[in-house]
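Hello forum,

I keep getting stuck at the same step: I have a sequence, I want structure tokens, and every attempt I make locally crashes halfway through. Rather than fight my setup again tonight, could one of you with a working pipeline run this one for me? It's a single chain of 391 residues.
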Amino acid sequence: MPKNPVSVEELFGIDALLSDEERAISAVVRSYVEKRIKPEVSRWFEDGELPVVELARELGELGVLGMHLDGYGCAGTSAVAYGLACIELEAGDSGVRSLVSVQGSLAMNAIHAFGSEEQKMRWLPSMAAGEVIGCFGLTEPDFGSNPAGMRTNAKRDGDDWVLNGTKMWITNGNVASVAVVWARTDEGVRGFIVPTDSRGFSANPIHRKLSLRASVTSELVLENVRVPRDGVLEGATSLRGPLTCLNEARFGIIFGTMGAARDCIEAALSYGIERVQFDKPIAGYQLTQKKYADMALEWGKGMLLALHLGRLKDQGSLAPEQVSAGKLNNARSALEIARVCRGILGANGVTLEYPIMRHMNNLESVYTYEGTNEMHTLVIGEALTGLAAYR
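Reply #2:
Ran it on my machine without issues. Output:
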């Protein structure tokens, strides 16, 4: 056994940068993930399932659903505390962090930010408790990076609205009780709160995934779905509505990816110390130690960036291009860390006996969703030059 090894967190003195409350929240979520998620998640991943309904109630009791929102049964924590919870959830699996992110930062946040007081009172307490599961319908089969091209539409019919269209790659879609659906109208892009038992609404699970297998992903189909006037998010009248929610979700990814990367590094360190080749642990060879050192540096930089952006968010000064910088850097770094860790484990790295290949496959999706690597690159490019290069 090596003498007094330190963790990547200790190497960068992360604990010293956190308050007592932040450390306590992180520890509670980490304990839940260690006891509840990690023992089961490889089987869930292999079977392509996640017990969303059961986990949602547990996560509601834990207090992490919409934890960064104020009132209506939400904990009202700091942005950094929410980010730290995302780290621990994604150290378990990206699918679990996605469940929490979609529920809190997308579906609940949309209602919290743009809904009426009646809508907030009706939906948010039960969603915070995990009794009602929500989903967020923005992405379409032909429109991901360009949501302005959406074909889903809503037309007035008396006091009601009638929705038609299709949404794709919707997390929690076919287990949700309520969907926040974005549609084009004559008045601009509007948001609608749609109970999933509405006539004409259907959700079809997407199978044969090689990534985020421990997550429910669905296609939503709306065929003349009638939504009453009190189902409209009156505070959202343009694309600014859904894009604001996406920025909230991206913020959680900045932290969450560092959880997946940390779990990979920890697994690769443990394996390298125990795995003996040529009469010596492979962790004792210079080539392997260079990999560990390089990964630790990338993790540390990503973690410090996440904390910095979290402090800016808590001060109310976080800009969208800064969120893009964090998502771009940390998703990219985490994916590369997972790939290097997989190599350290050799053939063992491709099995579900170890978490690394599962994280690596998941991170391929995280690298793409909530804004692709390319789109965030262009957001940063526009911020630096003042010139848009999307077309």
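The mean pLDDT is 95. If your local run keeps crashing, start a new thread with the error log.
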